[in-house]
UniProtKB/TrEMBL annotation:
Residues 1-16 form the signal peptide. Keywords: Signal. One of its GO terms (molecular function) is hydrolase activity, hydrolyzing O-glycosyl compounds. Coiled coil: none annotated. It comes from the Eukaryota. The keyword Signal applies. It comes from Cafeteria roenbergensis (Marine flagellate). This is Uncharacterized protein.
Amino acid sequence: MRAFLAALCVAAAAAAADSRCAGKIPSSWSWVGPVVSRNSSSIQHSQFSVGAEGMDRELTVFDNWKSYLSGTGAKFARVQAGWERCEPEGAGSYSWGWLDNIVVGMVARGVEPWIELSFGNSNYPNGGNAGSSSPFPQAGPALAGWLAWTTAVVCRYSPVDNIGAACAGHSRAPGLSTVLGANIFQVWDEPVKAGNTIQAYAALANATATAVSLAAPGAQVWVGGFSSPDAGLADALLTGMTHMGGVGLVTGVSYHSFTSAPEAASSAVSALRATASKYGDIEIVQGGGGAPSSPTDAASQSGYNWTECSQAKWVSRRMVQDHQDDITTSVFTMVDMCTPDGGVVADGLIGATCPSKQVTKPKPAYYAFNALASLFDAHWHYRSLSITVTPASGGFGSYTPFTGAYVHDTSSEFWVALWLGGQTPTNAGETPTVDSTVTIRADGLFAPDLCWVDPVAGSRHRISTWSFGNGLYTITGVPLSDYVTVVVACPEAA
């Protein structure tokens, strides 16, 4: 127990390495302890995923950072399976060792890999290449090779209970549990670029979905991986698949979200959800959204002076906004990636040096991710409660206050997430704090005491400035900042 508590304190200290990043805490709110940390194995289910991209192109190395994976609390990780790396000679002879190591290693750590089937294979005529802008394999030996590899991947990594007759004669990854494995298979990533059309992608997605479903009838098939929540592209894709007969195999449409203010994507996501619902019971998945910890050219959102502070704030808002919208969401990415031209994709929750690809340290975003994943497991559900936020003086300036209430599925306890949004997160020394009064209409719900969880500071405080009457909780002196903080019930959270 002492070792566990020590680890929590280390995590909290690391998260709050620069105290100027966090908002202020009222002096009357007593410190309770560090944020509660849970690893992936201790969380039964949640909607949070972390990106594990780039290993198909050797931009990062699983063995260098695998010991940190469970510490995120993520339940899923997006893995790009790499057709060309799996089939380096293009002759139907597969090299599985690298991918086996990843899939088996993730499952052992309580994380389910969702496997992205990508990209091309230059060993086949018209088969494309291993890069993310590869042309699709559309016909002849290239398409046949792609579908054969797809079948082999699905058979190798699906739980045994999921596999179908098409898997006869296919091998299973050594050491992989018979009841665990990959249940989700996504077709390609950001498909409409470099000359690839939505019509050509619909044909590829249709053929691939059919192959996945024949190999594992119980598998989920996700399509899209669009670079933004584009309802028009999704409509064209699903219409095309309807005409080809495969839309009924689709269980999810994935998109990426790299808006500098995470909340900015919500209206487009609603439109995407409405479009997908026309074609069946299809969920919407935020499959890769992130922010860098430095403004390198290779990173996402490179036009802003990003730091580890603003990255951690962005991650907190991305996670909770998507949870509020009931979306499975994946943060891009687990570790900084090294590009072939010497660039650094600095979106990682963990730092790395290039070109060695060796891990340096977890960033504050890593601890913020874990704090929120530890809180918002599958037992907590969004509830539309009446919440009012009133600034003590003046206004919120260019910010908009955002709130979200959550109720536990087996009790009457509730939590409330609060933040200032609508703008790009600030850096250390710039954090806005607006003292506010928060009122929560919570008829029938209960909290014996209230605590304040700050995932960026890594701390918990007992709130002393609250009262309850006539079904209304009132909290004064609430320090709203441009990242997510959470009012939770004590003593459970304390």
